[in-house]
## 1
Amino acid sequence: MKRSFVKMQGCGNDYIYFDCLEEELPQPEKWSRKLSDRHFGIGGDGIVLICPSETADAKMRMFNADGSEGKMCGNAIRCVGKYLYESGAVPKKDMWIETLSGIKRLILTTSGSQVLSVTVDMGSPILGASEIPTLFNLDTVLDHPLKVNGQEYRVTCVSMGNPHCVVFLNEVESLPIVTIGPQFENHSMFPERINTEFIHVIRRNELRMRVWERGSGETWACGTGACAAVVAAVLNGYCDEGADVTVHLNGGDLIIRDVGETVWMTGAAVKVFEGTVEL
Ligand SMILES: N[C@@H](CCC[C@H](N)C(=O)O)C(=O)O
């Protein structure tokens, strides 16, 4: 069976998008593993299904490159908004998308029929250690020591609908992320594995971030991760609540504002190419 797809990216976090508004895509876990392969597939950090919703304008399902389903994806949800608006399926600049971590509001900035950027209400951060989930016997995991492969790091853990471990370091460019990323991801304190953000505070309200994503490895950006990093930075005194914080990712910048009861994320959404694939 031939299926059309659209390849889109947000700050270089690239997914293969399938329009499932009228036709389902069976076995998404299997196709995410196969199609995400950068040598033998289309290449991407995973796949995203754009599905009908009974409670919102549409529903997003996202699968990591290893086939596991993520509950939320900040970069993908902006691309879903772009696709729905530009295809005419949802001709609204203020739309609602259902995800496994709740319904999110998107506000689109457009120029004519093109979407330039999307602002998303990412919801309240969850700080409860067991809710994230982590196995720390604490209420919150705030600047707490964690031994990873014999080395001690100080970590702050936040859920943005999916679990994140934020580590502040003096620099991140020389970080051997391919080695230490999986050690964090599969650490025994994280029963559902974890996404890890390595952060260098450049100055107040400006962060450099590299990320190791659960299920996809090092990606060029992570929207939920950038939100978790800013929440952690506010809690640790590096950024101001209510301020626009610039997060520099490998593939571009996101602007994140933590206003306490919710976190706003603004960034670009870009179409790379369209195609068809035999499934
Ligand atoms: N790239 C994403 C997050 C994708 C899901 C994550 N790997 C997980 O399994 O929780 C983003 O932009 O937020």
## 2
Amino acid sequence: MTENGPAAVDAVVLDIEGTTSATGFVVDVLYPYARERFGELLASRGDEPAVARAVAQVRAEIGEPDADAARVEKVLGEWVDADRKATPLKALQGILWAEGFARGELVSHFYPDVIPVLRRWHADGVRLYVYSSGSVSAQRAWFKYSAEGDLLGLVSGLYDTENAGPKQEADSYRAIAASTGIDPGRLLFLSDRPGELDAARAAGWRAVGVRRAGEPYADADFGDHPQAAAFSEITLAARSSS
Ligand SMILES: CSCCC(=O)C(=O)COP(=O)(O)O
Ligand SMILES: [Mg+2]
């Protein structure tokens, strides 16, 4: 499909799960990796500022200010089972995943069509950003430890629900646009979830639904959003210096 908006695209903002990468990998590999390590993290590293902060957020969210480590671990497990994109869960997962990637125990997954297109867009001067429910720390590791090596040089910035806000709210996209300094109409968001596409468009962005066979949202109603089954189907309008 061709992205035929009124102006050229200056930057593409990428969702990860279901868009650049397989949900199956996240659910079957990453989730168990973190889940097996929550107990040890909470028991032995609870004083680390990032851990303590996330634990406080979990306690606040469940309305149990005195919840002990075992109770917090149980809640985290329930959130994983429900695939809740809760910010403190993502923060704790991100700590463990980043360490696993750095140790060589994890290698990120990208669909085969993605990296060649990201390299081409980057070479063409299109800026690339990430906006995922996965924490910034997890995103950094995801792009650094891919099967094709370190891809962080392609990426100009990383956004998550902590620094930008929930992915189904237009204000989050307004905040990202302001942070990048790019006109919203020249930002293109790629995502597998119609609710995220709706929010981006409500903020004045362009949006394309990435609808990959076998992904959980492949059969969802994408309304009138343009759609693509792979990045190779997305052609950005020619850019000019004006
Ligand atoms: C490296 S991000 C790990 C994936 C994850 O936990 C997640 O929630 C991704 O959700 P997305 O917003 O990218 O669909
Ligand atoms: Mg997604």
